[in-house]
Amino acid sequence: MITRLILIASLSLFPFAVNAQQPNAVAALLDGSGSSGEELRPLKAVVVARDGAVIAEHGYRGHTVAESTNIKSASKSIISSLVGIAIGKGLLEGPDQKIAPILKADLPANPDPRLNEITIGNLLSMQAGLDRLSGPNYGRWVSSRNWVRFALAQPFVDQPGGQMLYSTASTHLLSAILTKVGGKSTLALAREWLAPVEGFRIGAWERDPQGIYLGGNQMAMTARSLLAFGELYRNGGKAADGTQVVPADWVVQSWQHRTNSRFSGDDYGYGWFSREIGGEQVHFGWGYGGQMLYIVPSLQLTVVMTSDESAPSARTGYRDALHGLLAEIIAAARAA
């Protein structure tokens, strides 16, 4: 675990602290100096908010919190929020609703009967049972002519509701479902439904050959925008003006333990991971390369970290370094 965030001058640190005239323990931590090594070199920006107010934000090596970055799979948490809103609006029945009737036009000929058992909740918790289309299988999936049909045609490697099989195809199926029941593109729905969230904006977002926005990957936004989304969840689904954007019970359901990652052992709910960090229960969205959205409800903290998205963060130990940095932020916030 990192015992202290230390950023040397060679990293060309450019601070953008909001409360620069009111130093706090977290800002002091992020503004430290000494010898750091290379473990945090991919880090681009950090933003920390407590109880709705930004207490520190910094960019590193010429990056800023206002620049757009590809948040990768951290966008799965955003897809989950749109599903929750759709349920609240009556466009979807709930997590137990079967997906086959909605996607019947894209089902394969002579489909496996188990396709009829997959639910909205199974897709959200990565328990569809279909073979994974992330990792080594991702390239052939996004090279296909129809990503939805390709995903539904994958063989079953477990039963629906079985082990966690992390697959971006599952959240892409949710994007297709949202497009069908909402009558608009997923991007249009996000802009409409999340409009009350001040500071939230989706930039570029990849689409499949049929024009469906890629559920759970290749979404661009700033660190500040991702923080605004995180604050929505920290505040029980309410925007800063009190508007209930995401149903409060959906926030609770999203963070409920449903399965575990076979890679990290972390709990997983509906588009959110959970684990203990720094002695506190933390819910987080995680994207390739180290795009992190952390919520620490007990301390009313929301923390965003963006990173170079060109390299993996899990097997290199970089994700653990970011968890360690969060532990230091938690300690500093607890002592304040």
Order of helices and strands: EHEEEHHHHHHEHHEEEEEEH
Helix content: 25-40%
Count of helical stretches: 10
- In order across it, which strands form the biggest sheet? 1-3-2-11-10-9-8-7-6
Largest sheet: 9 strands, antiparallel
| Beta-strand percent range | 15-25%
- Termini gap: 21 Å
Q: Find the structural class using helix and strand composition.
A: alpha+beta
Mean pLDDT: 91
Integer tally of domains: 2
Secondary structure tally: strands: 11
Radius of gyration: 20 Å
Can you tell me the residue ranges where pLDDT is under 50 for at least 5 consecutive residues? 1-22, 33-37
What overall form do the CA principal axes indicate? globular
Written overview of the protein:
- With 336 residues, the chain is α+β, with helices and mostly antiparallel strands.
- It has 2 domains: 9-68 and 272-335, no CATH class; 71-193, DD-peptidase/beta-lactamase superfamily (Beta-lactamase, 3-Layer(aba) Sandwich).
- It is 29% helix and 16% strand.
- The protein has 10 helices and 11 strands.
- It has helices at residues 25-30, 76-88, 120-124, 138-142, 147-152, 168-182, 186-193, 223-234, 248-255, 318-335; strands at 14-15, 43-50, 53-59, 68-70, 220-222, 259-260, 267-268, 273-277, 280-287, 291-296, 301-307.
- The strands form 2 sheets. It has a 9-stranded antiparallel beta sheet with strand order 1-3-2-11-10-9-8-7-6. Strands 4-5 form a two-stranded antiparallel ribbon.
- Helix 2 (76-88) runs parallel beside helix 6.
- 49% of the residues are buried.
- The model is unreliable at 1-22 and 33-37 (pLDDT under 50).
